[in-house]
Specification:
The protein is mainly alpha-helical. The chain has helices spanning 2-5, 13-16, 19-38, 49-58, 63-80, 89-129, 136-155, 160-172, 182-185, 193-200, 202-210, 214-219, 221-227, 248-263, 274-283, 291-304. The chain has 16 helices and no strands.
Length: 320
């Protein structure tokens, strides 16, 4: 599991798509210079702030280019300014430093944003990795659920951000099993009522483990951990939520979780056939599972067949 998980990298849209910002920057510069040429008496100082911000997005990776761009921007502004011929060297340097500080502020904000997302991913992977020490089957189960849920979210045309969130939620949805006795997790015979009640606590345990992480609340990961065993008809746990009371990402995770549970080998039984698992998903449409999400997943199964059970290498995350 961990080798595959280590291939999951944050590829934020900002980190990968700097070219559009570069194009917009040069376009804005052309327009502003054109306006300055047509009406040189007009003070367009404030308008130069716009390409400055765009330049921060376009060149955030390279501080040297940022210095060059800020210098060029300040020179162009001063050259076309009504007072341009009366500028002192001190004023020129002052403008350059002001523009440089502005562009550095934008680029540093981007770097901070990306670093925070990387920290969130690293924390998620560290938590998910802890499952390996308890139950190898559970470790692979969490990764599989993450992949199936990611596929469903993509098919439903959810945003790349939501797809990333559901992948991370899939990795963490069973984290609460760390608090369940190993004798219960690895028991090869049917569970007693008390043992089953203990297993059912894992969603609450997992939620309490990570509930103080702000990014997990905003992204819906906490909802996925807490509610992935709720049923569409209101008979699930822990809250007996019904229908759309259950957060959508948790409803997606429920389908992915159940499918992998059926098609994976467990300590107490062998894996079930794909056709049987698909029929069970179909049979519980509208009772255990959200009808819309069920239809989407069955459509995926129809397209991919047994290929869906193959190990999927390196799902790349979009704008996180």
């Amino acid at each position: 599991m961990i080798d595959s998980m280590n291939k999951v990298k944050i590829n934020t849209w900002l980190a990968r798509k700097t070219t559009p910002f570069t194009v917009v920057f040069f376009f804005l510069m052309f327009v502003i210079i054109l306006i300055d040429e047509i009406n040189p008496t007009q003070n367009l100082t404030s308008m130069y702030l716009i390409p400055l911000v765009v330049a921060g997005f376009a060149f955030w990776k390279n501080m040297f280019i940022q210095f060059i761009v800020s210098g060029v921007l300040s020179w162009v502004r001063d050259h076309f300014a009504p007072y341009g011929h009366d500028l002192s060297i001190h004023l020129v340097v002052s403008h350059w430093l002001t523009y440089t500080l502005a562009i550095l502020s934008v680029s540093n904000s981007i770097k901070f944003y990306i670093r925070e997302k990387e920290n969130t991913l690293n924390l998620t992977l560290a938590l998910a990795k802890s499952l390996d020490s308890r139950d190898t089957h559970t470790a692979f189960h969490s990764e599989n659920v993450a992949k199936y849920a990611f596929k469903i979210a993509k098919e439903m045309k959810l945003s790349s951000r939501q797809c990333d969130h559901i992948y991370l939620g899939g990795l963490l949805h069973d984290i609460g099993k760390i608090g369940v006795p190993e004798s219960i997790l690895s028991k090869p015979t049917p569970l007693t009522k008390d043992e089953y009640d203990s297993i059912k606590q894992h969603s609450i345990i997992g939620y309490n483990m990570v509930k103080h992480i702000p990014s997990f609340e905003k992204s819906g990961i906490l909802d996925m951990i807490l509610y992935h065993h709720e049923r569409f008809d209101g008979t699930g746990y822990p809250g007996r939520l019904k229908g759309e009371q259950i957060p959508r990402l948790a409803r997606i995770l429920s389908v992915a979780d159940s499918f992998d549970a059926m098609t994976s080998t467990r300590v107490y039984r062998n894996r079930m056939e794909l056709e049987y698992a698909a029929n069970q998903i179909r049979k519980n449409r509208g009772t255990q599972f959200d009808p819309e999400i069920t239809d989407v997943f069955l459509k995926i199964l129809e397209k991919e067949g047994s290929n869906i059970l193959l190990h999927i290498e390196g799902i790349k995350m979009g704008p996180y």
